[in-house]
């Protein structure tokens, strides 16, 4: 499994082993156990937007303390020519929501 998928296949392998099955190989790429997260709650809106900007290659430390909204995050991504710049706003919003859901799920699976 890759990223969150690694956590999913790990959970599946553990369940199979608990049921007496043998798991010969488990390969995980870029996956982190939930207990390494700073907290086990879903991220705040601002944390999710910072992660979205990081995904787009933007350094959130350059925000100069300005409040971050979905609209301002999209504007930053478009202005800086991010890899996400050509995506429709709805797609960018879906990326953020997927991140929120994934982190929330991972935080519950410790």
From TrEMBL:
<protein>
    <recommendedName>
        <fullName>Thioesterase domain-containing protein</fullName>
    </recommendedName>
</protein>
<dbReference type="Pfam" id="PF00975">
    <property type="entry name" value="Thioesterase"/>
</dbReference>
<dbReference type="InterPro" id="IPR029058">
    <property type="entry name" value="AB_hydrolase_fold"/>
</dbReference>
<feature type="domain" description="Thioesterase">
    <location>
        <begin position="1"/>
        <end position="87"/>
    </location>
</feature>
<dbReference type="InterPro" id="IPR001031">
    <property type="entry name" value="Thioesterase"/>
</dbReference>
